[in-house]
Predict the 3D structure of the following.
Amino acid sequence: METFKGQKKEKTAYTSSVPAVDDASRILICLAKNPSFKINLTDICKEVGIHKSKGYSILSTLQKYGFVDKNLKAKTYSLGPGLISLSRKVLDNMDYREAVAPFLEKLAHETHSTALFAIINDGNAFVVAKHEGDKNIGVTIRIGHRFSATAGAHGKAIVAFMSQEEQKFILKKERLFFHGDATKLDRTRLMAELKECRERGFAFDIGELNPGINAVAAPVFNSQEELIGSLFIIGTFQETQISGFGVMISENARQVSRMLGADLDKIYKMA
């Protein structure tokens, strides 16, 4: 049986507002209503009516769970993809999922692999849509699965198109998983792979993340020319198929980016 103290806490949680939760909720609503989607700390706290130190603490906590995304360069905040991992019901109504579904289905059938779309947030890539195709033997990954944004093919495709400042910030970390286990990282080879990815539009992993499983990935951008995630396939296809699949993945990722309003001429000219 719970103590009186415990009962009081439970009653409060269900019958009245908890200040910290109330403030966190109003911050999320503030971010959702902001027309530009991104807003700085000062404006958030002004809108919500809380002190900056409190706002910063709440945003840092929400960021920890992926509910808020922070742009380190612009020092702005926006809603994070961690929100979608809470519920499949939410995912059923996601624009991204609906938008990429035809592309994932096509890629899965043409490559006989699992096709995935993941969006990046705070050093991670969250799977928000997938199609497992018609293969008999393959890879199953659940919606909401979280990868490190520094792992395998999707990691290379993401980091290759980051700004120099963002890329430098990521690459200075000691534990990077581009070549599987962090102890196997070859930084010289990685830099060559990132350069090749910027030139060809796709990156690949040949069984380094998971033996026997290969992957090919390409970046996806939004209407603000921001890198938002990666379209990629995972499967048991042969190494000799990677080049052809890479062109296919890159073209589909470009089509998704155009559909989201991205100016690819501008993006690839800068790459």
